[in-house]
Specification:
The structure is a single chain. The chain is mainly alpha-helical. It has two domains: 5-100, GIY-YIG endonuclease; 102-153 and 199-236, no CATH class. Helices cover 51% and strands 9% of the residues. The longest helix has 29 residues, at 207-235. It starts with a strand and ends with a helix. 10% of the residues are buried.
């Protein structure tokens, strides 16, 4: 379930050490924290060192309060000022003010990033470009090439077929019992109604619906782009 609010990451061995943050989707943020910690790239060096020493089992995640996204920064700043969390490198909610890196750390970061292609490079496309890309279709030439590649696939050997048969022995078929619930006539009608269908729904998708789907996709793409920019900014 999507929850917006303030959360806490606390050590079990030392409860006085904890981290406070905010998110419009707390469950996703917790997954992101774990991913960064396991990759050893977390923005909080203190939390990263603690994780490297004690592991994931020592961290306890909890929700402090639920609130609207407009009040996240205000509430997060209150908890930071009131409790002074040990693992928070940034003492100001919503930005990276307070992080002080040594010259040695700066040099290591510079050397590590030299020659790497930025992950955001080439992703700044306009909504019109994205819409044109989605409207593209495979040409007859590309379809012919794909067919030729499929022809080159090796056929399944009889030995492999036998192993597949053995692996499925004793398993209950997904449609077992349908004949007891539906009559043969009803099953034939359902089968005939699905013949020639291309979409999940029986009715084809209208142009208006397609346009709404494109606009919805563009909004999701724009939101993810902004989130990636914010994450990149926090890591600098």
């Amino acid at each position: 379930m999507k929850i917006s609010g303030i959360y806490k990451i606390q050590s079990k061995t030392n409860p006085l050490r904890f981290y406070i943050g905010s998110s419009i989707n707390i469950s996703n943020r917790w997954v992101r924290h774990l991913w960064d910690l396991k990759k050893n790239i977390h923005s909080s060096s203190k939390l990263q060192r603690h994780f490297n020493k004690y592991g994931e089992a020592d961290l306890q995640f909890s929700v402090l309060i639920e609130c609207d996204k407009e009040d996240l920064i205000r509430h997060e700043q209150y908890f930071i000022d009131e409790h002074k969390p040990f693992f928070n490198t940034c003492k100001t909610a919503g930005n990276v003010l307070g992080i002080k890196r040594s010259e040695e750390t700066k040099k290591k970061l510079s050397m590590a990033n030299k020659g790497q292609i930025p992950y955001i490079k080439g992703k700044h496309r306009t909504p019109e470009e994205v819409a044109r890309m989605r409207e593209r279709r495979h040409t007859e030439e590309s379809k012919a090439k794909m067919r030729e590649r499929c022809k080159c696939r090796k056929p399944i050997s009889e030995e492999t077929r036998q192993r597949l048969r053995d692996s499925h022995k004793g398993q209950k078929p997904w449609n077992k019992g349908f004949s007891d619930v539906y009559s043969i006539e009803a099953l034939n009608k359902m089968s005939a109604s699905h013949l020639g269908m291309r979409y999940k729904n029986k009715l084809p998708v209208t142009k208006e619906t397609r346009q709404k789907m494109r606009e919805s996709g563009l909004k999701v793409w724009e939101r993810k782009r902004k989130e990636n920019q914010a994450i990149a900014l926090c890591r600098r």
